UniProtKB/TrEMBL annotation:
Gene Ontology MF terms in the entry: serine-type endopeptidase activity
Region spans: Disordered: 193-214
Protein location: Secreted
Top-rank taxon: Eukaryota
Taxonomic lineage: Eukaryota, Viridiplantae, Streptophyta, Embryophyta, Tracheophyta
Protein name: Subtilisin-like protease
Main location: secreted
Length: 784
């Protein structure tokens, strides 16, 4: 009877779709029991990088059952891999899989899997402005190549024009693989990896990939808007970076074997950054092939930016938890596309919608129900009325049904989980999305009034009126499941109602006409490319920095106060914790000048993996190195990460951290500790003096607390240099470096410190509701 049961069944439908390849078992020779597997093997003895692909394929073939091994290899393999992992994707029967698994040289066999895909104003909100702004200081990503692994691209979009772009750097080895796509100096590569068909053009059938690519590195486009709303100059975060497109997803899902093939190509082509707005549930890293492939990318200095997931706000709902990738959560910006709802009793609410046609004068307001539960399908007698529907399923599905039933307007009622988060994605009729507190009043009014009425008044776009950033309800939360001692997510960035490029499917000959259609979408899919672009700005300014250095720079310069100078809030307007915001909200202009960085190398990651208790083979799967754990092991807390998390039951923590000077050669930093009273904290030494660039200094951090009294605590400390006058979050302590509307940004080479409860949080039904809400909002068709 209740909502959750209904929704669960909805979820089951979609989940089962994703797993229809599960074989039922016994009859091995039935073609329908053939599944795609990714077979991860040890490299051939005497492997060298110049080994021919024929030799490598011969090696791979030796793992196949005899009948397949002797047949034409090109038919047998869907993909062969050698950059991310050694191995191949292949269709096998259950018996074939058993045969392959028995071979000693096989490290792991993964069943191929489907993973879900999880702006005009955002550059401004992030302090990136053309005139005198930070783009001047940070550059615009010149010479940096961002590989976007997504649903492809609409290359005719004006965002991908190459005005002002330089030639791609000499190291670039990619190209436009299909004659049906035109490359230029902005769009320097495009290829498609769908079920091994590499000759197809990377056409974007969904819009998701066009949106994310333009968010990362779209060029400047004037008068960009969604139906006139959010009008402004659109630009990606790194407007002069190059884009290389790898289509690895079709519509909403991405096959792991395709993602892996795309990552291989991106590494071989020479990208600097990989942007991947996708992810599945967390799993141990040796079972997480994206984590494994990202390890190979990291080793080659390629920065991987991945979505945290849309399964919030419940705890431990993250995707992509590996410490060598950046895990990106989502928050709001200060823009609203106001769709006001005025009730018959005079109450006025500010809802949102990017589609703002004519206003609706007071009309009868109905709340359709079946057995006491709101039901917005099979509607009767709603012609000329405004229908109020619970926003429990895709807004465009509800919109379509309500419009077809002849209604004049729609009010989408926010759910408890979604708190104050509202969406604005365009719909097919006049609509207002209202948040949960407003929805509660509207429900109450309908229930208690004999003749409920409402009007919808479209009030255009407002900027700076709302408190922001606020964590989006759908943004997945920590603690990490695979590695609870690493604080995740790492960072939050804009991911609600992000306006970015969108394919034009209006019937025009797409190859001739340039166009500038934009759409408004929400999700960690949208925040991820923001961070990919910002990583490109950092990389462009510091080409020699490691992946860990770029991560550290982004994390330690993040801010934790909003535009009201108050701590950043979550969707319920409670102070957002570290498990929601990680290090905080990204601050691009600060990220290029962090002063100090926490660097990490491959060897330390391997020691960390061994410290997780992984076996030699499990570490070999990730790091492609045998007997790795004969070397040193470290605990999670000992990884030189820019944050720390520790079990509350431990009672204390003593760890060393090493910082590298990337600021002024001669500089001196003193520590400032900000811990809750119940945690005793000290840092030693309290002062770090540097005389050289890249000089390293180690300090020790000690924390202790009473385990009988404290099971959750959060704090931070920062290193403060003389050059950068530090401003704390307390109002009144501002200086000239702190005059931005967004609050104060301190150059803290700081660390979030976090204690987490010992007990595991159970996932709840509500979580699954949010997951549906979060995901459907990434797929909107605006061709009304
Ligand atoms: C590997 O190299 C060694 C020494 O160079 C050689 O004896 C051996 O036959 C090689 N093995 C293979 C499989 O090529
Ligand atoms: C957007 O703004 C530009 C310049 O400010 C203006 O010329 C244009 O007409 C506006 N477009 C819409 C749809 O409001
Ligand atoms: C309407 O009010 C009745 C009586 O107070 C209550 O039982 C019911 O749950 C309410 N329905 C809604 C949709 O709020
Ligand atoms: C509607 O827009 C106007 C002009 O931007 C603004 O002053 C007013 O506050 C808005 N109304 C509401 C209810 O937000
Ligand atoms: C921290 O570093 C100091 C000095 O380098 C060393 O003596 C100590 O053993 C280290 N402590 C830990 C916990 O690694
Ligand atoms: C740093 O300070 C030392 C001593 O104070 C001085 O000798 C040196 O030249 C300074 N280096 C730089 C790069 O300013």
């Amino acid at each position: 009877m209740d909502m959750h049961t209904l929704l669960l069944s909805f979820l089951f439908v979609s989940v089962l779709h994703a797993h229809t390849t599960i074989s039922t078992g016994t009859e091995n020779f039935d073609a329908s029991t053939v599944d795609t597997y990714i077979v991860h093997v040890r490299p051939p003895p005497n492997f060298s990088v110049d080994m021919s692909s024929i030799k490598l394929e011969k090696w791979y073939r030796s793992f196949l059952p005899p009948r397949m091994a002797s047949s034409n290899t090109h038919q047998a393999f869907i993909y062969t891999y050698k950059t991310t992992i050694f191995g191949f994707a292949v269709d096998l029967t259950e018996a074939g899989k058993e045969y392959v698994m028995k071979n000693d040289g096989v490290l792991k066999v993964y069943k191929d899997n489907l993973l879900p895909l999880l702006t005009t104003h955002t550059p401004d909100f992030l302090g990136l402005r053309l005139s005198g702004g930070s783009w001047k200081k940070a550059g615009m990503g010149e010479g940096v190549i961002i590989g976007v692994l997504d649903t492809g691209i609409d290359f005719t979009h004006t965002s991908f024009d190459d005005d002002g772009m330089q030639e791609p750097p000499a190291k670039w080895r990619g190209s436009c693989k299909s004659s049906l796509m035109k490359c230029n100096k902005k769009l320097i590569g495009g290829s498609s990896f769908i079920r091994g068909h590499k000759s197809a053009p990377p056409t974007d059938d969904s819009g998701h990939g066009t949106h994310t690519a333009s968010t990362a590195a779209g060029g400047f486009v004037d008068s960009a808007s969604v139906f006139g709303n959010g009008n402004g100059t659109a630009a990606g975060m790194a407007p002069r970076a190059h884009l290389a497109i790898y289509k690895v997803c079709s519509e909403k899902n991405c096959r792991v074997s395709d993602i892996l093939a795309g990552m291989e190509a991106a590494i071989a082509d020479g990208v600097d950054i990989m942007s991947m707005s996708l992810g599945g549930p967390a799993r141990p890293f040796y079972n997480d092939i994206i984590a494994t492939a990202s390890f190979s990318a990291m080793r080659k200095g390629i920065f991987v930016s991945l979505a945290a997931g849309n399964s919030g706000p419940s705890s431990s709902t993250l995707s992509n938890e590996a410490p060598w990738v950046l895990t990106v959560g989502a928050s709001t910006i200060d823009r609203q596309m106001e769709a006001l709802v005025k009730l018959g009793d005079g109450h006025l609410f500010v809802g949102e919608s990017a589609y703002q046609p004519h206003n609706l004068d007071p009309l009868q307001l109905v709340y359709p129900q079946v057995s006491g539960v709101n039901y917005c399908f099979l509607l009767k007698d709603v012609a000329g009325k405004i229908v109020a529907c619970e926003h429990t399923t895709s807004a465009d599905i509800i919109g379509g049904v309500v419009k077809n039933a002849g209604a004049s307007g729609l009010i989408l009622l926010g759910q408890e989980d979604s708190g104050h988060t509202t969406f604005a994605d365009p719909n097919v009729l006049p609509v207002s999305y209202v948040d949960f507190p407003d929805a509660a009043v509207i429900r109450q009014y309908i229930n208690s009034s004999n003749n409920p009425t409402a009007s919808i008044i479209f009030n255009g776009t407002s900027l700076g009126k709302t408190q922001a950033p606020v964590v989006a309800f759908f943004s997945s939360r920590g603690p990490s499941t695979a590695s609870p001692g690493i604080l995740k997510p790492d960072i939050i960035g804009p991911g609600v109602n992000v306006i970015a490029a969108w394919p034009f499917t209006g019937g025009q000959d797409a190859n001739d006409a340039k166009h500038k259609t934009f759409n408004c979408l929400s999700g960690t899919s949208m925040s991820t490319p923001h961070l990919s672009g910002i990583a490109a700005l950092v990389k462009g300014t510091h080409p020699d920095w490691s992946v860990a250095a770029i991560k550290s720079a982004i994390m330690t310069t993040a801010y934790v106060v909003d535009n009201q100078k108050k701590p950043i809030l979550d969707e319920r307007f409670n102070t957002a914790g570290h498990f929601a915001i990680g290090a905080g909200h990204v601050s691009p202009s600060e990220a290029i000048d962090p002063g100090l960085i926490y660097d990490t190398n491959e060897a330390q990651y391997i020691s960390y993996l061994c410290g997780l208790g992984y076996t030699d083979v499990q570490v070999e799967i990730i790091a492609n190195q045998k007997d790795a754990c004969k070397g040193s092991k470290i605990t999670e807390a000992e990884l030189n990460y820019p944050s720390v998390a520790v079990r509350a039951s431990a009672g204390k923590l003593v760890v060393n951290r090493t910082v590298t000077n990337v600021g002024e050669a001669n500089s001196s930093y003193t520590v400032e500790i900000d811990m809750p009273r119940e945690v005793k904290a000290s840092v030693s030494p309290t002062k770090l003096e540097f005389t050289k660039m890249k000089e390293k200094k180690t300090f020790s951090l000690s924390l202790s607390w009473d385990i009988s009294k404290t099971n959750h605590a959060e704090g931070s400390f920062k290193w403060v240099s003389e050059k950068h006058v530090v401003v704390t979050e307390k109002p009144g302590l501002q200086n000239k470096e702190c005059n931005r509307v967004r609050g104060c940004f301190f150059h803290r080479a700081g660390s979030g410190v976090h204690g987490y409860k010992d007990s595991k949080v159970q996932l709840q039904d509500k979580l699954q509701l949010s997951r549906i809400l979060g995901t459907v909002n990434e797929n909107i068709d605006i061709n009304l």
